[in-house]
Amino acid sequence: MSAAPDKWRPSLGLVIFAVLTTVALLPLVGLFFFRLYDNQLIRQTQAELIAQSRVLATIYAQEVEARLGSGLTLGTEVPPGVLPDPGDQFTPIRPALDLTADDLLRRRPDAQAAPQPAQQAYVEIGAKLAPIIRDTQKVTLAGFRILDPQGVVIAGRQEVGQSLAHIEEVADALHGQYRATLRNRVPNKPPPPIYSFSRGLGVHVFSAMPVIVGNRVAGVIYTTRTPSNIFDHLYQERAKFVLAGLAVILGTVLVGLVFSRTITLPMRELIDRAGRIGRGDREAFRPLRHYGTREFAQLSHSFLGTAGQLARRSDYIATFSAHLTHELKSPLTSIKGAAELLQDSLQGRSESLTPAEQTTFVANILSDTQRLEEMVQRLRELARAESLPQNERTELAPVIADLKSRFPESAISAGGNLDRSIRMSREKALIVLSHLVDNAIRHKARTIRLEAVDERTMLRLTVTNDGEPISVANRDRIFDAFFTTRRDQGGTGMGLAIARAVMASHGGAINLSPTAEGAAFELQFPTG
Length: 528
Fold this sequence. Notes:
Elements: H1 12-66, E1 104-105, E2 112-113, H2 120-140, E3 143-147, E4 153-155, E5 162-163, H3 168-174, E6 179-184, E7 203-213, E8 216-225, H4 230-236, H5 238-278, H6 294-347, H7 355-385, E9 394-395, H8 396-406, E10 411-416, E11 421-422, H9 426-442, E12 447-455, E13 458-465, H10 495-505, E14 509-513, E15 519-526
Parallel strand pairs: 1-6, 10-12
Antiparallel strand pairs: 2-5, 3-4, 3-8, 6-7, 7-8, 9-11, 12-13, 13-15, 14-15
Helix pairs in contact: 1-2, 1-5, 6-7, 7-10, 8-9, 9-10
């Protein structure tokens, strides 16, 4: 298997730190989104000024129309493209001021001396409207100035008689075009940068609404107001927001501790265990001190279980190899010795062997060869027994029928729930039962009884025989590979080891059961 590409990867701690930092900065990032709210407040203020100005403009226009016969002079003629279509039922003026654009200007210039005073008729109109704008200002908190067609203030608390015609928005309105601006309240201070938190603080909304009478400018309703500001609210509630910030920091720290406790520490300990297992430290198979989460507990159990199984498998292979070497050594040594003696006799390098001796040596060679063949066959069966199952299923009834056919001279009987399906192939189930029957026959059993009991998730099969009992000293060793009490009769000691390997590889089990006479084995076949 090829190794993973060697490239930079962030550590889990770095990822967690980045996530926590992002979470901690979210409230600060949210402050920039307040700019949208600021714009909404400014446009709301502009909309209110438009509505108030339109009402005053209507009243002002009526007063001007009433005095046109007395020689009242109107202002600039409005270009045709500026006036709305008379046939339109609605001609709304939509608020469009924007803090993020270039609408924020310096402080409004001071009023200048008027080149010529306003006509007396305009002064009278201003005096008549002055109480209205004062009462309106008490409620709306807006500032009102009414200008004549030349930009001279005729009504307002201050600057009456002075000219505002040089101001940009007023100049546009005197030519028949509505104009609104944002202006800084602080004198001689440049507008703050676009991302400044104070950008929405200390600004005024100015609205210049032209009054049109007979296609000419009759005056301007010039209004101003400071919009509501979210940062004013933040400042007023600064103690609460400081506590909220501390709560966010504390929450972030707590989240970090939870991450460290539930993810980082268990993962580091698991990585350390993997390294120790790789170095052969058997103490590393102990459970972790902290698992953190259910998923890490499952991962740790799976990893340590797999590692333990591999370690046991490695020990088993080492032990099995040592036993196999020992078992093969004796017949190979015997065969080699007999062959050398026969060779020396044939070549005349030693006294000639008698025919009887030659026959004995040949018989020994054939016997040892037969033992090696049986051992190789058992090893092949063991390898097949330990192979992983592939969705295999069968019932015990046909397996027992094959078993009776294989051992026709033995009295084999069966009962119980033999039609229950088990998770094992017919061939492997036959291997297990054949070794048990063969082992019983070799120990002089005359009758063999199989009894199956269904226990929901497994099928328990008891195999009893009336053969020679198993001694107490051998009970713990009968499933060990190469252990046999019939070595002189050709026994390999592999039968029960193969049976246990087959059962274990399929999630089952085989155990020796206590019995008064003969021998009894209990097999647990998985059925789920």
